[in-house]
Amino acid sequence: MTGVRKLHDATIGDLFAGERRGGAERLAEGATLLRGFAAAEAAALVAAVGTVVADAPFRHMVTPGGYRMSVAMTNCGDAGWVTDRRGYRYDPADPETGRPWPAMPVVFSALATRAAAAGGFPGFAADACLVNRYEPGSRLSLHQDRNERDYAQPIVSVSLGLPATFLFGGLERSDRPRRFRLESGDVVVWGGPSRLVFHGVDTLADGDHPVTGRCRINLTLRKAR
Ligand code: MD3
Ligand code: FE
Questions:
Q1: Which domain holds residue 190?
Q2: pTM of the entire structure?
Q3: Closest Cα to atom 5, ligand 1: which residue?
């Protein structure tokens, strides 16, 4: 190795000291990006989404303000996140059918527990999973996740399929967001002081992915109640 290369590596190493540890990147206090953490399981996770969707199909929900969301959603687990003209909430039943949401696949809950532990939250047990499907042109505007009972519980998010630009803001809506590219198999754990930050997803670019085809799927695993 040349002296120049060694110097370069040492500089990069110093720049990221305290930020990267064994593939984990600390985005902010309590927020950890685990690049590729679910890559080996991506196909199995997408297959499990197929079993959920067979029972509770993707649908475009309406916001309390009357806007149709560009992201299609469904849920599994003990409760599902829903929105309609009456507001945002968790519901134990799918409002489209009146039936309970499908059970959470064990591949989801086991991954959430392992990822949360890697992000510094041992013993996490997700009881709800929101499944988001982004097609080209879909986006999720800046928001906070505030419908869960206990903000001490982290949220685990899993990206599958087409890459997206994630917007990671601050505790005020007006804080200018940082932008991160999230790829298939990336997992992010959001807890502690990062739990209530404003966040969103930029308009999805078109593409074709071997695991999902022309879309991105995001799983958000939560302890809702
Ligand atoms: C940061 N989903 O469903 S996951 C959502 O890619 C949501 O579908 C996005 O935001 C998606 O509510 C982003 C990343 C995420 C999820 C929850 C968070 C980031 C978060 C909660 C607090 C802070
Ligand atoms: Fe969110």
A1: 21-222
A2: 0.92
A3: 220
